[in-house]
Design a protein that fits this description.
36% of the residues lie in helices and 24% in strands. The protein starts with a strand and ends in a 6-residue tail after the last helix. The chain has 168 residues and is an alpha+beta fold. The chain is built from 7 helices and 7 strands.
Length: 168
């Protein structure tokens, strides 16, 4: 079952993000890795900044989460994670379809350039990597991330957005 997150889900969302983010260890630049991957304070700040989570619940347990953030003319998919032991069961695809179906706005996703599995997942769902120039512009416009993260990330755009720009 997919449902909107409530404040009672905060700890479980935090656990899933930090569990699933272990896949990035040794993949993303070492200077971008930290423990925990996402501190509670950062998650709280992002929720306060408008990131709304959906939860995938299986047998009464939240096993996957995905957030969306309205940034005016676009929406951003944020923090798409499935608990390590549940990966590969289609939860991420179901969450993504649910979020895409909930908006008419163009959708953008930022992820680590070295996370080939994440890029492939979004491409399988119709997203395309934008050009380096457009990526830099988008990350600086819609995200609040350090410059080093801009350098080591990619942005993928859905069909609603990419009809307007050159792709890689």
């Amino acid at each position: 079952m997919i449902r909107p997150a409530t404040s009672a889900d905060f700890e479980r969302i935090h656990e899933i993000i930090n569990d699933a983010a272990q896949a990035y260890r040794g993949i993303i630049p070492a200077d971008r890795w930290h423990e925990p991957y996402m501190p509670r304070e950062e998650l709280s700040e992002q929720i306060a900044d408008g990131v709304e989570f959906l939860c995938f619940e299986d047998g009464g347990e939240v096993t996957g989460v995905m957030g969306i953030q309205d940034r005016g003319e676009v929406k951003l998919i944020r923090h798409a994670y499935v608990a390590t032991r549940q990966r590969g069961g289609g939860m991420g695809s179901k969450l993504l379809r649910e979020l895409l179906g909930s908006t008419e706005k163009p959708v953008l996703i930022g992820t680590w350039a070295a996370a080939a599995w994440a890029i492939g997942f979004y491409q399988k769902h119709g997203f395309s990597v934008v050009s380096e120039e457009e990526k830099n512009r988008l990350l600086r416009t819609y995200w609040s991330i350090p410059e080093r993260q801009v350098e080591t990330s990619v942005v993928l755009a859905d069909a609603r957005y990419r009809t307007r720009l050159p792709l890689v």
